[in-house]
Amino acid sequence: MSRRVLVLRHGESTANVEGLIVSVPGARALTEVGLTDLGRTQAREAALSDAAQGLGPGTVVLSSDFARALQTAQEFAAELGADAPRIDQRLRERSFGRHDEGPASAYDRVWEIDRARGVHEHQVEQVDAVASRVLEVLRGADEIARAAPVVLVAHGDVLQIALALGAGMDPHDHRDVPHLANAELRELGPARAGADA
């Protein structure tokens, strides 16, 4: 019985290099903002990392449909010899509303409000909303993981919140979880099954 669920943040993207937030579904997120050459290399190397020990052709890879995550999932799965990734739109990046296409420095203000349990304005997706969709994915992943390891490929905030839930933490404290680097693969903690957003 596997029961292994891991998370993999996308590799370096063109938006990372440009210092921009790209979080709203549309052509930019779904097709234009993909991986850099380094990002593709990072994704393949993640499949060879110590964290990937025990993963292989039977691993199930679930991915956001945003280009940077899906390209990461494709490179990672190919390196493992696993089947092509399955898309799950619930793994899409957190929407940063009016900050979309703006500087990445806006993250800091959003995270301050998260920590303070504040309410976001201007279409910024609330932590509870992200946690709710992440928990749905985790419940499904736990079912799949009865038979095979599962890797969830997604974005920084979505996976920080997933890791907080896995550690039994309040998802509003997601930035207290050690930062997930580009193409970092990490095992999800066991608290996820009973977590509540």
Domain count: the total is: 1
Name of the CATH architecture: 3-Layer(aba) Sandwich
Q: Report the total helices.
A: 7
* Largest β-sheet summary: 5 strands, mixed
Q: What is the string of helix and strand elements? A: EHHHEHEHHEHE
Structural class: alpha/beta
The CATH topology turns out to be Rossmann fold
Unreliable spans:
none
Description:
The protein is α/β, with parallel strands linked by helices. The protein has one domain (5-191): Phosphoglycerate mutase-like (Rossmann fold, 3-Layer(aba) Sandwich). It has helices at residues 14-18, 27-32, 37-46, 67-80, 106-115, 127-144, 156-166; strands at residues 5-9, 60-63, 86-87, 150-154, 185-187. Strands 3-2-4-1-5 form a 5-stranded mixed beta sheet. The longest helix is centred in the last third of the chain and has 18 residues, at 127-144. It is globular and about 45 Å long.
Features:
197 residues; 5-stranded mixed β-sheet; alpha/beta; single chain; Rossmann fold
Report a brief summary of the structure:
The protein is of the alpha/beta class and 197 residues long. It has helices spanning 14-18, 27-32, 37-46, 67-80, 106-115, 127-144, 156-166, and strands at residues 5-9, 60-63, 86-87, 150-154, 185-187.
List the helices and strands and how they pair.
Blueprint: E1 5-9, H1 14-18, H2 27-32, H3 37-46, E2 60-63, H4 67-80, E3 86-87, H5 106-115, H6 127-144, E4 150-154, H7 156-166, E5 185-187
Helix pairs in contact: 3-4, 6-7
